[in-house]
Amino acid sequence: GEGNGGEGVGEETSLSGYFTVENSVGGMRVLCRDLFGIEMTEEVGIPSAERWDLDDDEVGPTSSTSDDSASGGGLRKFTFRHVDEGPLGTMYLDLHPRPGKFGHAAHFTIRCGRTRPDGAAAGGRVPGGDDDDGQLPIVALVCNLSPPTPGLGETVLSHSEVETLFHEFGHGLHSMLSRTAFQHLSGTRAAMDFVETPSHLIEAFARDPTFLSSTLARHHATGEPMSSRAARHLSLSHADFRGVEVQSQIVHSKFDQALFGEDPCSPSLGGPTSADTWVRMHRESGVPIAAGTHWHTRFGHLVT
């Protein structure tokens, strides 16, 4: 990469010190406030009945998070409130790995939202309350970001980890801000072609040069913001190898059509196997593929 007094964009690790969990959460708060007029507030002390991050021997009737939430990587809880509409729902952040935990990054809906019969947003409903009050959503963002660094006081992230977090936050906001009369049609339970739109919208802010230099990227040791030049270079680097990425997406789309189209690939119907079709489409499109591998078997979006 081009050098510019230590602020150029070479290896991603040269800029990773500018990204931390707390900077990221702060950026999420700014987006909620400036885009939607929403206050995102952390609740300190989560009752043990709401926690899934503790071992059985750690859970007691009064177990709660306090010191271990932000600095130690424990479960965190945030409430969302609009200046006019009032309470909007609850979001948990479970960001770091631990033994036996789900190994990827995802947004999970614990409880879907539902409007009141008059179409207004739900307000103040609690479990067991009057159904006519509607229902506030409860969602969880589950990730496996870099674990906290002992003695550092900050959890330093790579830029790609920040993109992942903001992507899942977009899904969470989709569920939080949805307005549907039926809970099973709320949030990400929408048309599949639209599900990834809010997530990519929010993820884009993690690459926006202005947002990077003004809000999101501050060095964990000095507090200095990332320079505008470095932020621009980092944003532009997202387009590196874009042609290969687009071509790969075309292969994925064609493969989906081959599986479920009018003439599906199926040996039982006299056609080729899915593995043979996968390999053929890569070769025809010039996209590299490792021989003897079957990546498409873990391509979950084919069936969800």
**What is the string of helix and strand elements?**
HHEEEEEHHHHHH
Low-confidence stretches: 1-13, 124-131
Number of helical segments with 4 or more residues: 8
Helix content: 25-40%
Determine Rg (CA atoms, Å). Answer: 22 Å
How much beta, percentage-wise? 5-15%
Would you count the extended β strands for me? 5
Structural classification: alpha+beta
Strand order, main sheet: write it out. Answer: 1-2-3-5-4
Amino- and carboxy-terminal Cα gap: 40 Å
- Rough shape? globular
Largest sheet: 5 strands, mixed
Q: Average pLDDT value?
A: 84
Write up this protein.
This protein has 304 residues and is an alpha+beta fold. Helices cover 34% and strands 11% of the residues. Strands 1-2-3-5-4 form a 5-stranded mixed beta sheet, with helices on one face. The longest helix has 19 residues. The relative contact order is 0.12.
Labels describing this entry:
five-stranded mixed sheet; 34% helix; globular; 5 strands; alpha+beta; 8 helices; single chain
Write the layout of secondary structure elements.
Elements: H1 13-16, H2 21-36, E1 38-43, E2 76-82, E3 86-94, E4 106-111, E5 138-142, H3 159-177, H4 192-205, H5 209-216, H6 228-237, H7 242-260, H8 274-285
Parallel strand pairs: 3-5
Antiparallel strand pairs: 1-2, 2-3, 4-5
